[in-house]
């Protein structure tokens, strides 16, 4: 059975292509922990997180929401150009319909406000880059700047003007410094925190949640910047210990054969390999300077 879809151009590399930092980095298994860190960080913007909690069923469909986010990242990274553009159009259409109310002013606002989209984008991309590098993926400072510049493409897909999106580490640091006065851990943020620590599961899976999920969520939280941990009000771990745990986890997960990991649905990387050939296989250690 072929993994390519009917109508997929055989040689279409998509938005990024195999030579990009994005293509190589997003195949790493630590992306799942990075994604949880992004959720913790995104929840600290009161207007952004209110837009989520008031317009989604994340409490009852958390796994579905996580998988849809992972599918969007996979499609925009490894899918064809047409598939990525379609995915972006769907996201923009949904966002245009969603509104929330500011509890302090009573103002109704759209979740597609550029400032909110920019926060969500920057928190996500920063989390991916931070966790991957801190866990031992061989990405240099130059790679990091290339990665950030590449993600002006994904920012455009969700409705942002690429010109306002930080395109290197200095610009991203300046953005976070400027937005920090707007951040707070309100009731919505603590609800997200509680949910990520104790997501609803089948009663038979409660022991697994305590043994496995709690450690994963805790590692994602521990990798947050100190100001974020201070806002949440939970104890800040020793940074060196967190780095050792991230590296140990990354080393362990990367021992799982890539072809085995890529079998997990929806098999974006395998589809890319079927479309483009062996050159499409992510291998971060082969990245140029």
Sum up the structure in keywords.
mainly alpha; oxidoreductase activity; ER-bound oxygenase mpaB/mpaB'/Rubber oxygenase catalytic domain-containing protein; 289 residues; MPAB/Lcp_cat_dom
**Secondary structure category:** mainly alpha
Note poorly predicted spans: 1-8
Strand order of the largest sheet: 1-2
> What would you call the quaternary organization?
single chain
Number of helices: 15
The best one-word shape is: globular
Name the helicity range.
55-70%
> Termini, distance in Å?
38 Å
H/E element string?
HHHHHEEHHHHHHHHHH
Radius of gyration: 19 Å
Please report the total strand number as a whole number: 2
Instruction: Report strand %.
Output: under 5%
Largest sheet: 2 strands, antiparallel
User: Mean pLDDT score, rounded?
Assistant: 89
Number of domains: 1
